[in-house]
Amino acid sequence: MIHDAAGLGRFLEATPAVVEPLRLVVRLGLPDVWIGAGLLRNTVWDALSGLSPGSNPPGDIDVIWFDALAPEAADMAIEARLHAVRPDLPWSVRNQARMAVRNGDVPYADARDAVAHWPETATAIAARWTGDALEIMAPHGLDDLLACRLRPTPHFAASAAKRAIFAERIRVKRWAARWPGLSVAAELP
Fold first, then answer.
1. Are 176 and 184 in contact (CB under 8 A)?
2. pLDDT score of 186 more than 80
3. Using alpha carbons only, how large is the chain's radius of gyration in Å?
């Protein structure tokens, strides 16, 4: 099944619910553009938990990109373009160049740096279609994603306030109820 990055790539490439959005997003021609977080995590955790594909659809499809010069309104325009093509998908577009301010972080250098600052290691993953193949970005590796384990990223583990956000996300999102085999790392507040 899925044991490493190569297996993950093959699995995601064979999953229409993932590949179709990735192919749509690459056609936008945005700089440093990826789809990350819940779409990938949920798809993998459903498969690893023996659940039918789509058992736990994400609340949105997180399209991330990075352009420090783009106006804030660009996200809404891009989202509208995606909704025009696939109005049935829950698109969410965020230029990561602006997200550091919202998150109380120092400015991010690029999309990879932004993803590294996301709350959970298993969620800090993104993919993009390069035209020929799938490229996966996982700044904290794939171990926690493939082990169905929740752990804060080092950025979130280093701050009591961010650890509290991590713990609240676990409670609100009810991940343990959705994936019964899920484990939570001990370093919670």
1. yes
2. no
3. 16
Name every residue whose Cβ is closer than 8 Å to that of residue 123 and which is 6 or more positions away in sequence: 36, 37, 38, 41
Task: Work out the average pLDDT over 14-26.
Answer: 95
The average pLDDT across 136-146 equals 97
Beta bridge partners of 129: 134
% residues pLDDT > 90 (the chain): 89
Distance CA 47, CA 30 (A): 30
Q: What pTM, to 2 d.p., does this model score?
A: 0.93
Torsion of CA 122, 52, 33, 68, to 10 degrees: -50
CA distance linking residue 118 with residue 153, whole number of Å: 7
Residue 72 CA to residue 135 CA, distance in Å, equals: 27
